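Sat 14:20. Reprocessing the chain from the morning session after the first attempt stalled halfway. Input below, unchanged.
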Amino acid sequence: MTLEGTYKIPAPRDLVYKQLLNPEVLSHALPGCEKLTPNPDGSFSAQLKIGIAMMKGTYQGRVEILDAVAPEHFRMLVEGKGSGGFMKGEGTLTLTEEGGDTLITYTGEAQVGGLIASVGQRMILGAAKQNVAQFFQEFAKQIAAK
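Finished this time. Tokens:
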């Protein structure tokens, strides 16, 4: 499954980049996030409640940040598992300054397995796109409050 798109945040690129790596901001912006904890190796451990159609569950996961070049881009490796199955993915976020605003371009690939995969690719992709949109909307609110 491929996810890609752009989102404009009305804030300077340096601030946006810094806040994209701030666990407090991210935990409030991630849909269903119950806990996001930094690990000593620079990765994050996460606990999320996610529901797609009738499939709902709690998932434990890990996010690793790689190839970070502040404030331009970074790559993420994401993995999670729970009662409904598992997810593995990789994505890249690129931040471009646009006259005081920041344009975030994201692209990523994800694989899902287990019961959650039985929901169907189209429904999973739709839910993923909705979660990404909710994340960026809430993230923009968090940035505006800073």
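The chain has a mean pLDDT of 92.
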